[in-house]
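User: These chains co-purify. Model them together.
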Amino acid sequence: MKPESEAELAEMVRGAAGPLALRGGGTRTIGRPVAGELLETGGLAGIRLYEPGALTLVAGAGTPLAEIDAALAAEGQRLPFEAPDMRGLLGTQGESTIGGVVAANASGPRRVQAGACRDSLIGVRFIDGAGTVVKNGGRVMKNVTGYDLVKLLAGSHGTLGVLSEVSFKVLPVPETAASLIVAVSDAGAAVQAMAAAMASPYEVTGAAWLPGTGVVLRIEGFAASVSYRSGKLTDLLSGFGAVEVEAGAKAGPETGPEAVAARWAAIRDVVPLQGAAGDLWRLSVKPSDAPGVLARLGAEAVMLDWAGGLIWARAAEGEDLRARLGVPGHATLVRAGAETRARIAPFQPEPAPLAAIAAGLRAKFDPRGILNPGIMG
Amino acid sequence: MDMPTPDATILAGKERIVARLAAVLPADALITDPAETRAYECDALTAYRCPPLCAVLPRSTEEVSAVLKICHAEGVPVVPRGSGTSLAGGALPTADCVILGVARLNAVLEADYQNRFIRVQTGRTNLSVTGAVEEEDFFYAPDPSSQLACAIAGNIGMNSGGAHCLKYGVTTNNLLGVTMVLMDGTVVEIGGAHLDAPGLDLLGVICGSEGQLGVVTEATLRILRKPEGARPVLMGFDANEVAGACVSDIIKAGVLPVAIEFMDRPCIRATEAFAHAGYPDCEALLIIEVEGSEAEIDEQLGLIKQIAAKHNPVALRESQSEEESKKIWLGRKSAFGAMGQINDYMCLDGTIPVSALPLVLRRIGEMSRDYGLDVGNVFHAGDGNMHPLILFDANKPGDLEKCEAFGADILKLCVEVGGCLTGEHGVGIEKRDLMVVQFAPEDLEAQMRVKDVFDPKWLLNPAKVFPLASSAGRRAA
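Assistant: Joint model of the two components:
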């Protein structure tokens, strides 16, 4: 099924005889496989409202992310949270939709400074499991009118409702950007270097550690400011290893903003871990816990983002890395074979009282249990 | 303001209920004397008052849990209270309720600079969170004007904002985790020092739920390193519309100040007389602040002044010292108080799309003439969060009602142009009955389902947020 309007979508959900497998662009195939009739949201496409002077954009949930990025770029603006393109990692085809981004609360390296997708999301319209159209939030960036279902829907993977429309707060694209590469080979030192950078007043908008490359930091803003902060950070971090600055004051074709953008797109899309078989895990921990976790994981390949708070790990098939976490946080099995995903829950199981609340919410919003049933289970 | 009829069984059982509470609390944590419970009869929306059955001031999550277990078993409503600074009546008691004040839960539990978070008990005041980390040059970003007094518990309940949230976001964007006690006494931990939820984003819906889903006793908050410096610039214009157009041009130019504040002439005059902040005498004033090193500040302010120059400002002055900057902000943050010196006032909090600013300001002016009540406008212009202050005389019969009708008309206008009833103060009782202007019945139904799950007996913070008619069936159940 592929509705062309919100009313048609509501009708289809209302009339559904059994479970529905929801799909935006089909690029983020995370969670347990859903047995159900395919319901695609790609027909609910189009930017409904875009006011650059108010930093707000409203779009149909099926609008391709690329279309939104292009419209924003034409006005020198962007979505702040840098949603990853998961196709390379997951081996999926198709075109990511904005509704899928929201349903997964997909956020990239800028998460540490600009917040997650849910932090930029200011409004939703969705169809609950009974086929009722519900709206929450709106098109203004400060809104505390009633409960914030906007956040609740973000990252709910379709289990509370099928998104039909989403609204965002957007931001201006800074004049330029620079990367600093600090030669650090040890995870412990890397996390300390990233913590020092994040605790500085120099507004780091990305902090990753790639084994073999080192710590990679990003600074964005007006050219003179980026140059100034690059210098300050170089001084601050030189004790950790040699610091190389990409772009900034010495912008050129090979080292200019394009090179910086390409480097961060690769971090965003987890390119270093692509192209090899094995299970893929994504772990969220307190940054200073990351080195210890890495040591316990025994993974085949790893990288850190979010100043160490996000661990990407590739491991032998069927190993339960979650059992080795050992600290507060959570682990998501992002890619694995069907057998492994049947055995190991892709999403971290929650303590009983929270699991009961989540189950209660799903039962209220989707009493028949037809929206992506079991995908997060 | 309609409130539900107090439950006669509870009123009659006061002695038993108080005895049960006394059994789980130290003597000084339970207030039952009517002379003392009067202190809890209202919050900062003082037009509405009602003493509670009793008040409890627990010192630990365990005591909160014990109190809630008893109230749950007895079917007694509970009104959580931070510092009682709500402008929306978010902590207004009912005669049959227990006020659960978190004021004594004010400890700092952990400050972690490497991972940039602080864990506090939620009775701690907003400003004292920053106070606990500023020696290390860190700060907690959300800065409501009441930050000297307001508690983190209330900030979480109302998802409070502030002047600087244009850059740093509101409470929900700076809240990493909570310890919360459910109405049945169950203690849950949600989130923590790590980012994002493993499953559904419960933290996201708890923040801003006005104390109706649980009592938050501890919070993990994001702290940030202070910028190297900050400097505000004052810009005066001879018309509100011109100031509005200037704001839009600044945002479109790709400069994103940390704050863009707006005041109109009545507010400028009252504030200047009260706080002597050095504001120019003009129709519309913008306070725009940028951050960074001296050179970065100069560059950004240079751009902003270039844009402003195209709108022919009647005054344009950069702060020359830290002392002057403090005075400028003190003036802005005491604007409500300054207006209060000259009159009783009602403060509104609607948000509008920034593009609708000139239209909305003009319409408010027209309505002001029609109602015969003066209005001062002071608001966060960068994000469209307006705070019209309607002046009235509480001693003049009919004036409060006229003021409320005027306020409702302004909020309806906010919704009509694509905005909302409240940007940072919350619904409370004040805007409860206007919710139907912004939401269809099915939108409210979806929100009420969330409460059904967290608080099936609908005992927490009764009669707030949802129109009484919408929630009647659930409250009676």
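Chain A has a mean pLDDT of 95.
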